[in-house]
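INTERNAL AUDIT FORM
Audit reference: QA-55
Scope: verify that the stored structure record matches its stored sequence.
Auditor: D.O.
Record contents follow.
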Amino acid sequence: MNKLSPGLLGTKQHFDILDGLRGIAAITVVVFHFMEIVYSDYSKNFVGHGFLAVDFFFCLSGFVIGYAYDNRIEKMGVLEFFKSRIIRLHPLVILGSVLGLLGFFLDPFGGPPATYSLAKIGLIFLSSVLLIPYPVMPDRWFNLFSFNAPAWSLFWEYVANIVYAFVLCRLSRGWLIVLAILSAAGLTYVGYHAGNVMGGWGKDTFWHGAARISYSFLAGLLIFRFQLIIKNRLGFVGLTILLLAALMMPHFKWNWLAEVLVVLVYFPLLIALGAGAVLSPALKKICVFSGNISYPLYMTHYVAMWIFAGYYNTYKPGNAQLTLVVIVGTLILLGFAWLAMVLYDIPVRNYLNARRKK
C-alpha cells in the first residue's frame, strides 16, 4: 500500500464544500429526472447533462474512500471494511426498494400492470434489495433495478469498493495511473460509439457503467494519493456555479466529446478545487445539510418519478403548472429525504454499528 507523507491531508479533516457539492449534484439529478420525462430530446432539457452528476459522485467516492481507508484498511481488515460500507450504504438501498414496491402498487395514475405475477414482482423486489441486476420490465425501459432505478450506480459503487479492498488499496500510484489511462480509453470508446456517457443503468448499456465507475473512481483515488489539492478562494458558491455549468451545458455536434472531457478532466479538477477551497462560516451549515441529505435524496426520489410520469402523460400540464410541480415536488422530496435520514437511516446505522462493536 502506498503510504502518504504528511501534508495537507496528513491530519483528518472534513471537506464540507465537497459535501455541499454532492448535495447540489443530487438535487440536479432529481430535477433532471423530472425533466427527462417531459423532454425525451435532451437538447431541449435545460439540465440535459444532469446525469453526469453520477460521474461526479463516482470521482468524489474514489477520493473519499482513499482518504478514509487507505491508511487503515490493512489494520481493520477487508471484512470490517465491507461491514462499514454495507452499514453506510445498504439501509437506504432497502428503503428505496420498499418505496419502489409501494409506488408500483399504489401509483394513482397507473397501478401495477396485470402482466406481472406476484412471484415475478417478488423476484424483482428481492433483486433490488440485494442489488442483483434484473432488467426484465420493458415498461420501465429494462432498468437494472426496476423498483429503484438509481440503484444501478450503487451496484457499481459496491463493485468499486470490492476491487478497492482486494486490489487498489495495495497498488502503487504508478499502477493506478496505468489503470486510469486504460479506463480513460475505455470511457472515450464508450462515449464515441454510444454518442454519450449516460449508460450503465439498463440492460443494453450495462457495461457502460463499468467504464464510468472505473475511470472516475480511480481519478478520485489518485487525487488523494498525490494530494492534488488546489488551494483557492472560489468557495462553495463559486464551485457550485462551476459544477452546474457542466450539468447544464447545452448539447451540440461534439456533445459526446464534451461529456467525456467533463468526466476525464473537469470533474477531477472540481474535486481538487473543492478539497482546497475556503468555506465561509456562514455557509457551513448549508454544506453540512446538503451533504447529509444527498444520499437519502438520491436513493428515495425515484418512486416519485414514475408517479410524475403517469401524471404528466394523463394531464399534459402547461409550462407554468409544470414548473410549479417540479419546484414543489423537489422541495417535498428534499423534506422526505430528511425524514428518511433522521427517522430511518441514522437510527438503523447507529444500531448496526453498535451491534458490530459487541
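Auditor finding: record pair retrieved intact. The two ends are 30 Å apart (CA to CA).
Action required: none
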